[in-house]
Amino acid sequence: MKHVWLARAGRKGEREEFLIEVGALGSGWEEIPDLSGAESFEEIRTIVESVWPDESQRRIGIWAGQLWSLRSVMQPGDLVLMPRKGLGVISIGVITGPYRYDASADPARRHLRSVDWKVLDAPRTAFGQDLRWSLGALMTFCRVQREGAAERIEALMAGRPDPGAVSTDGPVDALEEPDIESVAEVSIQEMIRHRFPGHDLSALVEEVLKANGYETRLSPPGPDQGVDVLAARGGLGFEGPRIAVQVKNTGSAQGVPALNELLGAQSAFGADRALFVSWAGFTSEAARMARTKWFELRLWSADELVHEITAVYDQLPEVLRAKLPLKQVWTVATDEDGS
């Protein structure tokens, strides 16, 4: 039976490009030695306990379970989903080989499995809500426990829509113990998607900029010369930085051509900076380009937009807060993945 796995590449996505480049999943777990000779979960648990003797038995069990999955449970042909930090997209691959340990590599890049990355930039919004619940699991590695998950991911790999959720419930078992922050983001994004369609998303971005102290001008619906919002400091908007903002409320990740179009519009409008907001996220190539233009260009996917909204929520107009009702909840931070 073909399974679907969630795999993360560091808390900040620091190993994502490396894993894409070498065609692999895994890495992390710097302190853990080669697991090639470990033939059982209990052997791996003993290794983990020897490395971190002061950790709780619960954490040791969780970490050992994830390493056992990487070492033995994952099988060639299984599918893997890797959320891309800051891009708002998911990379989809097929596992092609067994566990291997590269002793010559950097310690953070030694525990690996070969992967054929079939799709690098699948928009997170293309996945049904129940699958996005699973993508919010805390673990570095865990199996996506959704009925029909493999068939649905294969449809997305083939460029077809997600055929639909069997259930829209939250996490289905302990292996999908949720990151509460990620679950909240999914819920907020669903509300924004339904309540701010089309050009309304541009108006929402404008209000976020106003709450950050900018004077703004929103383009009317229709042709906008490549800019949806103009923003600048000062009472009349004459002070810098002057920002040209493009908002794409589509189902496709935006690439380099779209960024070049915005940069051209930025120059035409005499703006100092450019901000690109893409509800469906950005391609890897767009992210690499944005890094080379860090002093000039910023990218917001749906994840970043939610973060910006929550940061200034109390300063947003009352009518907008009524349309997007949110409540802050404090909880204890957890760190269970150990990678």
Describe the overall structure.
- The chain has eleven helices and eleven strands.
- The two termini are 28 Å apart.
- Helix content is 35%, strand content 21%.
- The protein is α/β, with parallel strands linked by helices and 339 residues long.
- The chain has two domains: 4-178, no CATH class; 197-323, Trna Endonuclease, Chain: A, domain 1.
- Strand 3 (79-84) and strand 4 form a beta hairpin.
- The chain has helices at 16-22, 41-51, 57-73, 129-135, 149-157, 180-195, 200-211, 256-269, 284-292, 302-311, 318-323; strands at 4-7, 24-26, 79-84, 89-101, 111-123, 141-143, 215-218, 229-233, 239-248, 273-278, 297-300.
- The strands form two sheets. The protein has a six-stranded mixed β-sheet with strand order 2-5-4-3-1-6, sandwiched between helices. Strands 7-8-9-10-11 form a five-stranded mixed β-sheet, sandwiched between helices.
Secondary-structure blueprint:
Elements: E1 4-7, H1 16-22, E2 24-26, H2 41-51, H3 57-73, E3 79-84, E4 89-101, E5 111-123, H4 129-135, E6 141-143, H5 149-157, H6 180-195, H7 200-211, E7 215-218, E8 229-233, E9 239-248, H8 256-269, E10 273-278, H9 284-292, E11 297-300, H10 302-311, H11 318-323
Parallel strand pairs: 1-3, 9-10, 10-11
Antiparallel strand pairs: 1-6, 2-5, 3-4, 4-5, 7-8, 8-9
Helix pairs in contact: 2-3, 4-6
SSE pattern: EHEHHEEEHEHHHEEEHEHEHH
Regions with pLDDT < 50 over 5+ consecutive residues?
166-176
Kindly, what is the distance between the CA atoms of the first and last residues, rounded to a whole number of angstroms? 28 Å
As a percent range, the share of strand residues is 15-25%
Q: Supply the number of helical segments.
A: 11
Number of strands: 11
Spatial order of the strands in the main sheet?
A: 2-5-4-3-1-6
